[in-house]
Amino acid sequence: MIAAGIRTMTIRQGRPRTRVAVFACVAVVALGIDQVTKLWAQTALSDGRTVPVIPPFLSLTLVHNPGASLGLGSSMTWVISLLAVAASIALIVLALRTSSMRWTLALALAFAGAFGNLIDRVAYADGFLNGKVIDFLNYGWSVGNVADIWLMLAGIGIVILIMMGTPFEGAADVVDADVAETVQMTMPETTDNVTSMTSNNDGRDTAQGGSSL
Known about the structure:
By secondary structure, the chain is an alpha+beta fold. The chain has 6 helices and 4 strands, in the order ααββααββαα. Helix 2 (15-44) runs parallel beside helix 4 (101-123) and helix 3 packs antiparallel against helix 4 (101-123).
């Protein structure tokens, strides 16, 4: 019974590792898609041409954006870069703290979006975090990239999770309580079994002693 309790504890404590693995996989895949599409845009759209995709709603145009997502804050490049660094670190910390797989997925997309644009600001900088982000998805009223899409999806997901009341933390505490209860339940049974076995052995010893007399 103790072994069963230990196995239960091991299985349930392995779940945080699963969430970390999911966060890492989603973030890496999303980052990869963002960076590959940006490299493609710099090669295929470097001549300044515009490629219609869904006229007049979407076309492809290469733009180097010094501001934030969707062209906001173009005069505050280094400030936005510092905020992106802080946001990326905060998202990793939150991902390590959450007990919800749904929150893990939303945080992974948010991290991919923030870090994807931060890579551009560092890779194409000629000063202190003043690099320009590679945008190429022209919506007519603004130009963005895949990282912006990840940020938008993450934002929508977080709003939905909040509206649904999905807990950010708490599940881990329940698991720990369940594990403790499992161990506590198994220990008395084991003790009773040991006591029963001891009593049976004493009885057999007494019987054997009486027979020898």
